[in-house]
Give the backbone structure.
Amino acid sequence: MKIDKSLVRSIPLFDRMSDADLDKFLGHAISRRVPVGEAVFEQGAAATHFFLLLHGRLKVTQVTEDGQQIIVRVVHPGDLFGFAKALQRSDYPGTALAVAESIALCWPTELWPQFVDRNPRLAVTAMQTIGQRLEEAHTRIREMSTQEVERRVAHAVLRLANQAGRKEGSGVRIDFPISRQDIAEMTGTTLHTVSRILSAWEAKGLVEGGRQKLIVLDINGLAALADHVKE
Amino acid sequence: MKIDKSLVRSIPLFDRMSDADLDKFLGHAISRRVPVGEAVFEQGAAATHFFLLLHGRLKVTQVTEDGQQIIVRVVHPGDLFGFAKALQRSDYPGTALAVAESIALCWPTELWPQFVDRNPRLAVTAMQTIGQRLEEAHTRIREMSTQEVERRVAHAVLRLANQAGRKEGSGVRIDFPISRQDIAEMTGTTLHTVSRILSAWEAKGLVEGGRQKLIVLDINGLAALADHVKE
DNA sequence: GCCAATGTTTGCGCTGTGTCAAAGATGACA
DNA sequence: TGTCATCTTTGACACAGCGCAAACATTGGC
């Protein structure tokens, strides 16, 4: 399958790589189509590959011992994921599930050290990427520690609109099927509470909901909810 | 000031470095004594140095816009911290405060790329360290999403006993001054709730409390509380 | 040895959210 | 076009945990 080289180039991890090295890198890649509902890898499985999402959308989930599920993050096109082995883990800590028809590039994890050796800047940039992810995680912890549910949901929806928004009519539509349950698992609450909150927002004209659908009509209004201390 | 080289060697980040390089590395270091209550760096300040804790104990905190504080993590001897610049940040995301008399090695951040160039394995190992930190962050998110306060506190206390425990009498004492407020800020609750929980535990003989003091008397009992689904 | 500062405990009332339950909506598929 | 599975909405209720407030304990300084 033909690989979109300019897309790969646009990723921080690869933007400084020489053309020759990039070709070599892509030469080892396998392109894989992932239909909706299929997992790229599953929690606990041996980490045999690392991946780059070219197209589509994934959600990375974890299941706790007592069966509760949370969404760790959403993978967008251009994101590297399934890093586990590079981080000294032998298995994947979560499951990566396609929520939209997706295409991912796959490399055997053994190649990671080789590529790093050949291209030291790679490791630096990769570390920066992980650093950002760490920061996001801390942001989430801070939110969960200090904010009540409605503000957390507002932040989560704004983030989604930012990362996966597509203009539609007068608003911005989240560009993949997303349920209240999903939003609940991203914010640490229940689908019932999310449903109530979204209903209230819809009554205020902030969003438009629907089955697995969410359109933000008033970004500023939502941002006010997210930032403002309640009065 | 004399630097304890064997302590430095014991840190994953440095264990594979050649002796010559290590000497060079340490040659550029400044050793700094940090009395209790003093900050090594403050949130928002320019990230001029990165650090290695040789002795003592720090807590890394963040303050939200609306003035609430959370404890991001506790820094133990041997931990690298104040990484910001290596992760492509120009300022420190939090404040590192000494909760015990501490000694830290300091390097100017400019040296980081040099050391990485000279020693590519360094970047790989550093990434593994960050990876672990990311995992811890996700663990915390998972706990905050799915567990009620008492279990979260139990987990936090067990973690502290593990990382900073010193045998004392029949129990394990957390080896630095820690307040209920601190524990609250680590688990996303209030000091009042923490106080109530600890009182209850003390009545059950699980722990022994005190002013800025905490001794775990029954690790297994606590672990049961942390793991077991309440019955 | 007393005082001030700081940390801890405890009671009480309130409310945000989870839990349980049941009734719509929506879309896929036959 | 009807059926079924899935998702969403809404109500009723309970309670964990927060906010507020006041008393109590410990420590260090003078």
User: Anything to note?
Assistant: Residues 179-181, 191-192, 195-196, 198-199, 209-212 of chain A lie near DNA strand D (CB under 10 Å from a C1'). Chain A touches chain B through 40 residues (CB under 8 Å). The two ends of chain A are 56 Å apart (CA to CA).
